[in-house]
Each structure stands twice: as C-alpha cells, then as structure tokens.
Amino acid sequence: MALSGTFEDISFGELLQLLNVGHKSGRLTVWRGKDADRSEIFIQDGEVVRAVSRRERGPEVVYQILGWSNGEFTFERREEPVIREITESTEHLILEGMKRYDEWQHLEQEGPDMHVVLRQRAYAVNARLEELSPSAQSVLRLVDARRNVATIIRESGLPPAEAFKAVTELLVEGFVEEWTQGTLEGDVLPARDRLPEPEGAIDFNTDSYFSSKRQLSQRKEMAGTALAGGAGRRKPSET
To answer: Looking at the structure, do residues 63 and 125 belong to the same domain, yes or no?
Structure first.
C-alpha cells in the first residue's frame, strides 16, 4: 500500500485512525516547508511504535504533528520489524492529542495575548541557556519571529498549560520579545528570509545559542577593518 497526500485532504489524526483500523505496517513520513519540519513515524499492525523528528522522539512527536494545520505525508508499506519505543496505543495517542487540542482552544480563548508573535532576543541567551527549564528550552526552538504564541503552544507537543508556562518563563527572563513586523497571523510564513536581522552587541568571547557564524565573521571583519583604518590615521602623527 502506497499513500500520499496533504493534511488539507485528511488530518493527521484521521490518517492515524485509517492506518490503525486497516492494521497497516510501514513508515509514515510527514513534512512541511522545505523539509524544515520533517518526522518519521513507524507503524506496525496499525500501532505507532516509533516516532522521530530532528529534535524529539517519542509520543511528543505525534502530539506536535497533531497540532499542525498544514503539511504533507507519504506512507510506505514495510514489513521489517521495528523496535518499539512508544508503549501507548494509537487510540490513546489520538485521544490525548484531542484532549490537548481542546485545552489549547480553551487557552486561546482565555488568553489575551495568544496572537502575539515572538522572536528571540539576539545574543540574549549566551551561556544562560542551561538555566531554562527543559520545557522552556523546547519551546524556545519554535520562537522564530513568525509563529505567534498560540501556534507555538499548539506545535510544542507539550500539555498546553505547561507550554504556556514555558512561554511566560521565556518572556519574564528576557529571552524572547514581541515582534510585529513581517508576520502573518496564525501559522508560519513560508519564506525564512523574512526573519529580522539580529540586533544588539556581540561578546566575541562568549558563544551564543543564536549566534550566526556568518554574522559573527562579518562583524569581526568590520571590526578588524576599523582598527586597521585607525592605526593608519595615527601613523603620520607618530613620525
């Protein structure tokens, strides 16, 4: 059995139910954008036994994808056995995902700032990343100046209340801030080049979680040019 489509044709939850009822075995690959978000879900006899993404593995990957409003998928039938890493049944995963979706909707209605778009404060983290809770570190990866708070919470894979608490932690600690330019309400903008350039001073002696090697190289080069120019101006007065 080969199957492919988009989540506009069938939701991820409906797709899992279809494979579960049919007792199918194989690999389900889901993605969106230019493979920026790509995950693989392994299914045996209709049950999800393993789920892996670039950053996570386990049930949280399934919960994250259940929060997607768009995406593509392909299912390839495979009979090779896979070591089971997920003990929850597919039915349980879907029900838990639906429960979290209901909690997210309630939170969105109650929260006044759920449509605020957040961006990382450039070079604000540096060596402080480890001070954040594991939940806040996980949520921080989704803050990209394109997702709003509601989308971040929905796609985090965390229980909504825990994800909201993590967002609050990031705001209070100054790791993220509100961003109002170059965004669309709701989901992610398709073009990554719309992200704002980082701002703020750089401590070249401290590695930053957000540091861009290209930007650091450029600024170092500019600093070196400025120093060389200053030395050249001082040289006539010294002779």
So the answer is: no
- pLDDT, tens digit, 9 for 90 and up, residues 89-109: 999 999 988 888 788 777 777
Q: Point out the residues of the chain with pLDDT beneath 50.
A: 183-216, 219, 226, 233-239
Range of the domain at 36: 2-101
Six token digits for residue 20: 């579960």
Residue in 53, 7, 3, 48 with CA at minimum distance from that of residue 25: 48
User: Do the domain assignments include residue 106?
Assistant: no
**CA distance to 13, 34, 58, 112, per residue, from 203 (Å):** 46, 33, 37, 36
What SS3 class is residue 50?
strand
Residues 132 and 222 in one domain: yes
96, 124: one domain:
no
